[in-house]
Amino acid sequence: MKKALFILFLSPLFGIAQHFNDIATILADSSSKSHIVMISAGGYISSNSLKTDLYNKFLWGGNISGSLKEKSTNRLNISNIGGANAEGSISFVNDLSDRFGKGYSMFFTYNQHFFNDIKANKAIPDMILNGNNQYLGKIVSLNNTSLNLLNYATVSMGILKTIDRKSGIHNIGLSLGYAMGFSNTTLEMNSGQIQFTDEGSAIDLNAIYQLSISDTSGSRIINGSGWVSSFFYQYVKPNIFTISCSIEDFGQIKWLNTSLSEQKNVRLHFEGFQISDIIHVDNDAITHTKDSLINSIYYPSKAQSYYTQTPCRIGIDGSIHLSKHLVLSASVWNYVNTDQQIGVLLKPIITNLIPTLDIAPYVMRNGYSPFDIGLEVTVKTIKNTRIKANIFSFPVNSHTIGGEVLVGYKF
């Protein structure tokens, strides 16, 4: 019985939600009969406008200087998108060749997802960084604003079939799973504007938006349920080229009828808190007014169930062997049901110059960031063992920060 340990450090921007690719790659690196246990965890923060010099202040603390605020403000676009996403999973792959014939494998996967997706026009992050002083006496549009904070897990079972022909190798995968929703907040702004008086003494808010919040009472862990499915196909012409396509985590979650969901139409004029006696301040009255404001803006008044579509990756991945020492890899993908845009990766892989080492610099446009540069290093220590390191926050002040680690044990 052969045993092997695979340790891969991957970029989550094209590693997360690609379990079929991970499984097919590891199976191809060893004997036809294989059982695999894979554990992975990773996450990232990315934006089309902000950069890691600002992320680091929120992540690790520190003073946000005036010059950093100015630089970050100048980077803002008319429309700004960003995400802070993380995922962890454990998978078991069982070879079924003895029962169903050569090339069949079954796998079971538990996946934990933390997905945070936001879109806003320039004024909102500008006011967060610098305050509203420059917007006094002006009307600020809130259009083109959305928010999706989603915490859910999936338990999936799938089949992977490898068909080895003289013309090439075909890998086909299919999975179906149960989705457990833990928490969710979604906001979709239909139309909205906020106006500040010239002296800043009053605020007028007019907005129409769909707001949905899962049950936050704390009485349950699972507050919604649904399904997810995935499909994968790969064609391999050994030592010539490989191409694959996949649809992964396509599904939806229905939240409990104790959730809050409503299209809100808010028309609000606020002039602050009235204090008649500065010595004997009525804190209860201030708290009541503050709570009333929060409730009228944030909390829907109608309890009902609603549906959330899971973030679904649709991708095409391929590679071509240009020579004995050079493989060119490329990927195109899109996460539907999100504010992400189409992602593109181009990666030349320098291989076999040193038998145990592959080096792959790459350029990438992920779903949020307009451009990233990275470096992938693969160390093949012994037969069927690989250690892969991927650094995509290069140069240091890039639009993206994060990483992923995957450990696979094959026996």
Summarize the structure.
By secondary structure, this protein is mostly beta strands. It contains 7 helices and 19 strands.
Which secondary structure elements does this structure contain, and how are they paired or packed?
Layout: E1 4-10, H1 12-15, H2 19-28, E2 36-47, H3 52-60, H4 66-75, E3 79-95, H5 97-100, E4 104-121, H6 123-130, E5 139-141, E6 146-164, E7 169-196, E8 203-213, E9 224-237, E10 241-255, E11 260-270, H7 283-297, E12 307-309, E13 312-323, E14 326-336, E15 343-354, E16 357-365, E17 372-379, E18 387-394, E19 400-410
Q: What is the N-to-C succession of helices and strands?
A: EHHEHHEHEHEEEEEEEHEEEEEEEE
Separation of the first and last Cα atoms: 7 Å
Number of strands: 19
Query: What is the helix tally?
Result: 7
- The helix-and-strand class reads mainly beta
Give the low-confidence spans.
Answer: 1-17, 275-282
Envelope shape = globular
Main-sheet strand order equals 1-18-17-16-15-14-13-10-9-7-6-4-3-2-19
Summarize the main sheet: 15 strands, mixed, barrel
Give an account of the 3D structure:
This protein has helices at 12-15, 19-28, 52-60, 66-75, 97-100, 123-130, 283-297, and strands spanning 4-10, 36-47, 79-95, 104-121, 139-141, 146-164, 169-196, 203-213, 224-237, 241-255, 260-270, 307-309, 312-323, 326-336, 343-354, 357-365, 372-379, 387-394, 400-410. It is globular, with a radius of gyration of 25 Å. It has 411 residues and is mainly beta. Helices cover 15% and strands 56% of the residues. It contains seven helices and 19 strands.
